[in-house]
Amino acid sequence: MAKKKSLLDLIEMKRRGERVTWLTAYDAPTASLAEAAGLDMLLVGDSLGMCMMGLPGTVPVTMKECLHHTRAVRTGAPNTFVIGDMPFLSYQTSRRDAVRNAGRFYKEAGADAIKLEGGVRVAPQIRAIADAGMVVFGHIGLTPQSSGQLGGFKAQGRTIPAARATLQDALAVQEAGAHCLLVEAVSPEVTALIHKHLTIPVYSIGAGAAADGQLLIVSDMLGIFQAFTPRFVKRYANLADEIKRAFGEYCVEVRSGAFPGPEHVYRMVEGEAEKLDELEREFWPD
Ligand code: KIV
C-alpha cells in the first residue's frame, strides 16, 4: 500500500515535475476505491450539495454536511491525503469563524487540509488559518459559492481585465500563506502564467494542463451526475446507464420471482427443517 502523501510530498512532486492525481469523493466506498486505485488526494467538495443532495448549487451546503461526508471519506481512505471544503459563510464572516470552522475539519473529520474559495478578499482568512497551523488550499477562478456574482458557472480569465483580476487573486492567495492553489475554469494561458510564477503547487480543474496536477468531480467523470456536464469534464465511465440497467433488471426479477434464488438464502441447519411441522402445530394447533 502506498504511503499517505503529506504537504512535503506535494511540494517534492512539484519539484520533480510529477503530476498529482486528485478527485472529489463524498462517501467511504468511493473513497476506498480511489485509494485502491492510487489517487494522491481526495477533496470532499461542497459540490456534495449537487452531487449527493440534488441541490441546484453549493450555497445551501452546511458545515454539518461537509463534516459528515469528510468523516466518511477519511474512514474509507485512511491512507490518502483528504481535503475538507469550507462551505459558504463558514469563513467569509470573520477570521475567527474561519479558524474555528477550519479546525473542525481537522478535529471532527480527520482532514489533512482545508480549501476555501476566493483570492484577494479572503486573504486575511487564509493567513489566519495558516497561522493556526493548518494546511490551506486556495481556490480561484470560477468559485461556485460566488457564482451569483459571476453570472453563473462561467469560465474565468478570458479577457485581459479578467486575467489581471485572476493573477491578483493567485498572488494574494500565495502571499497570504496558502500552501497550494486550485484554479478552476480559467483560460489555460492564464493558468500557465500562474503555474510559471507561483512557487506553491498549482492544480487545475478545467483550467488546462499547465499545472502540478488535475482535479475532477468524481460524479462527472464516472457519468453519474446527470444535470449538466461542463466542457472540461472527460467521462471515464458511464455508470448512470449501468446503474439504471441494474435497477431495471432487479425490478424484473423481483416481479417474476426469479430473485432471490436458492443461492441467496440461509437454509436451516441440517435435520432441523424436518421438525418444522411440529413447531408449526405448537404455534397454530388448528
Ligand atoms: O466543491 C467542489 O467540488 C469544488 C470543486 C468544484 C473545485 O470546490
Description:
- With 286 residues, the protein is α/β, with parallel strands linked by helices.
- The protein has two domains: 7-237, Alpha-Beta Barrel (TIM Barrel), CATH 3.20.20; 242-283, no CATH class.
- Helices cover 43% and strands 13% of the residues.
- Strands 7-6-5-4-3-2-1-8 form an eight-stranded parallel β-sheet.
- Helix 2 (28-37) links the parallel strand 1 (20-24) and strand 2 (41-44).
- Helix 2 crosses helix 4 (63-76), helix 4 packs parallel to helix 5 (95-109) and helix 5 packs across helix 6.
- It is elongated, with a radius of gyration of 24 Å.
- The chain starts with 6 loop residues before the first helix and ends with a helix.
- The relative contact order is 0.11.
- The model has no long low-confidence stretch (mean pLDDT 96).
- Residues 24, 43, 45-47, 58, 85, 139, 144, 182, 184, 205, 215, 217 line the site of 3-methyl-2-oxobutanoic acid.
Task: Describe the structure concisely.
With 286 residues, the protein is α/β, with parallel strands linked by helices.
What are the SSEs and their pairings?
Blueprint lengths: L6 H10 L3 E5 L3 H10 L3 E4 L3 H4 L11 H14 L4 E5 L9 H15 L3 E5 L5 H9 L4 E6 L5 H4 L9 H16 L4 E5 L3 H10 L4 E4 L7 E4 L1 H4 L17 H18 L19 H8 L3
Parallel strand pairs: 1-2, 1-8, 2-3, 3-4, 4-5, 5-6, 6-7
Helix pairs in contact: 2-4, 4-5, 5-6
Bound molecules: 3-methyl-2-oxobutanoic acid.
3-methyl-2-oxobutanoic acid (KIV) binds next to strand 6.
